[in-house]
Design a protein that fits this description.
The complex is a heterodimer of chains A (110) and B (111). With 110 residues, chain A is mainly beta. Chain A has no helices and eleven strands. The chains are: A mainly beta (110), B mainly beta (111).
Chain lengths: 110, 111
């Protein structure tokens, strides 16, 4: 079946860039999403990229998509303590089905 | 707009008790979903609905039932709670082919 994989943990120093990676198996993806979950809260959509795009930039966030390798990444520039959260990669396929990764917990070091 | 709301926020049950979790959305979304989130397991889809009066099984439906009598509400029922159902439950809604909007979650403990 379709799958979305991401590493479970990432530690980054405050002020550095964070890069969270995700791979997916679905070849019929239409949109790929990044969700952010802060402690004790639900998931909030952070950004998304349409499957025919290579890159999307939104302030401190850069999403890169390599369709050939089915690899998606989220770069957070100048990482702040408020960026500490769990980040979920998700893939929407042609059947309107969303598959979520298990989430990457981003820990910010002082 | 309240978005997606869930009640209750917290609940403690004893094994064998029943309860219903309520999800409500005011965005006129067709699709609604129930997930559970457990450490190291990510989000797992329990049941979903693509419209009023319709429901379908997700990845982990056993032990749960759902109903979508009104477009804006999606209920998740546990008929006989088990400790394995201790989890955080999230409801979400969406338009077809669009991103999902999540509720704040319900933390359920089954003793």
């Amino acid at each position: 079946g379709e799958d979305v994989e991401q590493s479970l943990f990432l530690s980054v120093r405050e002020g550095d860039s964070s890069v969270i990676n995700c791979t997916y198996t679905d070849s019929s993806s239409t949109y790929l999403y990044w969700y952010k979950q802060e402690p004790g809260a639900g998931l909030q959509l952070l950004t998304y990229i349409f499957s025919n795009m290579d890159m999307k930039q939104d302030q401190r966030l850069t999403v890169l998509l390599n369709k050939k390798d089915k690899h998606l990444s989220l770069r957070i520039a100048d990482t702040q303590t408020g960026d500490s959260a769990i980040y979920f990669c998700a893939d929407l396929n042609r059947d309107d089905k969303i598959i979520f990764g298990k989430g990457t917990r981003l820990h910010i070091l002082p | 707009n309240a978005g997606v709301t869930q009640t209750p926020k917290f609940r403690v049950l004893k094994t064998g008790q029943s309860m219903t979790l309520l999800c409500a959305q005011d965005m006129n979304h067709e699709y609604m979903y129930w997930y559970r989130q457990d450490p190291g397991m990510g989000l797992r889809l329990i049941h979903y609905s693509v419209g009023e009066g319709t429901t379908a099984k997700g990845e982990v439906p056993d032990g749960y039932n759902v109903s979508r009598l009104k477009k804006q509400n999606f209920l998740l029922g546990l008929e006989s709670a088990a400790p394995s159902q201790t989890s955080v439950y999230f409801c979400a809604s969406s338009y077809p082919g669009s991103e999902q909007f999540f509720g704040p979650g319900t933390r359920l403990t089954v003793l």
